[in-house]
Amino acid sequence: MKRFLKFAAVGVSGIVVNQALLWFFTEITGLYYLFSAAIGIETSIITNFILNDKWTFRDRSHGKGGMFHRGLKFNAVSVAGLVINISVLFACTEYFGIYYLTSNLIGICAAFLWNYFVNLGWTWKAEKPGERKARTGSGPWKSKNKTVSIVIPTYNEKENIQKLIPMIFQTLNKAGIRAEVIVVDDNSPDKTWKAAEDLAREKKLPVRVVRRKGKLGLSSAVIEGFKVAKGDVLGVMDADHSHPVEVLPEMVKGLERFEMTVGSRYVKGGDIEKWPVKRKIISKTAIMMARPLTKLKDTTSGYFMVRRDVLEGPKLNPRGFKICLEVAVKSGARIKEIPIIFKDRLHGESKLGSNVMWDYIVHLKDLYKHKVRKKIKRS
Ligand SMILES: Nc1nc2c(ncn2[C@@H]2O[C@H](COP(=O)(O)OP(=O)(O)O)[C@@H](O)[C@H]2O)c(=O)[nH]1
Ligand SMILES: [Mg+2]
């Protein structure tokens, strides 16, 4: 319904453009009015197309064929719509004796419905999951001109976030990548949300802060961040400087050939700084437990990026805290792991309590169930 209304709003804007140009060329430049009308119609088709591609069908404008191809289709549909409009006007007036202005309204409605549904099913046709997979293999996706939304879940990370946000922008902007940061804070007692808001205002950075009622958990925070993110690429990182910002550009670039990139401690070149043996053993055990679920080596990583369309299908579980694993398993995305040296947190203390291991086991149980169901469905 929302899409339908957006399409209607764009249509109205097209009428304004059309009328304005018709008036301008006829009255100001003295052009013959039918030529002016042609310029008005074609320009409004183009402006309508751009608005629909960037707004109404934004979620479907990454498909094969490219923008030019979609533009041609839209043009053809619009011209056919115009013919429908005029034919209905003519038929209603001549054969049914309806007042010509009323007939035109009927014609406009018919053309509008035609335009909407044909564009929905053809110009911006939804991709089947298999097509998405095929497209990923050939890799027409380019990281150039893409915007990256980095979601940072926070709880008592005031000092960390104040340092981290400028570092993210510096690194990405230096690599020519546009970015926005979304801080999802659970009403931290240390007012992390306020620190982020102040920083954004002072340094004029594209940072948005989602302040939730209370400590509602890591995964649900990330999912809320995804909901408000506007970028073509959605990324997640911890606020505590454990995740190195230097690899951000490489993670974006990696999406040209893969659907998901993960900052990994367990591939060649990756490591963990200053972890006691006990913690390393727990971490390795946790990873082993998830091994049959995915090819991902660092299943407990919290540092990742995905193309927006990867998140269109799967319904993500807001419980738990291993959102990267959740996305990897539910989406079945092709993943590239990028080595990182995982550092100890800079300020503050870990937010994950003693029930972490239990939560993890419950989460794994859900994911195994999901995997088995998917297998049964396929066979
Ligand atoms: N919004 C929100 N963020 C959280 C929550 N729990 C942890 N975080 C954030 O998630 C990130 C990872 O948590 P952290 O305590 O560093 O986990 P650890 O690295 O496994 O010890 C940090 O940026 C935390 O501030 C939560 O319940 N809500
Ligand atoms: Mg941490």
User: Percent of residues in helical segments?
Assistant: 40-55%
* CATH class descriptor name of the largest domain: Alpha Beta
Structural class: alpha/beta
Strand content: 5-15%
Query: Can you tell me the CATH topology of the largest domain?
Result: Spore Coat Polysaccharide Biosynthesis Protein SpsA, Chain A
Strand order of the largest sheet: 3-2-1-4-7-5-8
Can you tell me the residue ranges where pLDDT is under 50 for at least 5 consecutive residues?
none
Total number of strands = 9
What quaternary form is this?
Answer: single chain
Count, helices:
12
Q: Span between N and C termini?
A: 35 Å
Small-molecule binders here are: guanosine-5'-diphosphate, magnesium ion
* SSE string: HHHHHEHEHEHEHEEHEHEEH
Major beta-sheet overview: 7 strands, mixed
Chain-averaged pLDDT? 91
What is the CATH-assigned architecture of the largest domain? Alpha-Beta Complex
Shape estimate:
elongated
CATH superfamily of the largest domain: Spore Coat Polysaccharide Biosynthesis Protein SpsA, Chain A
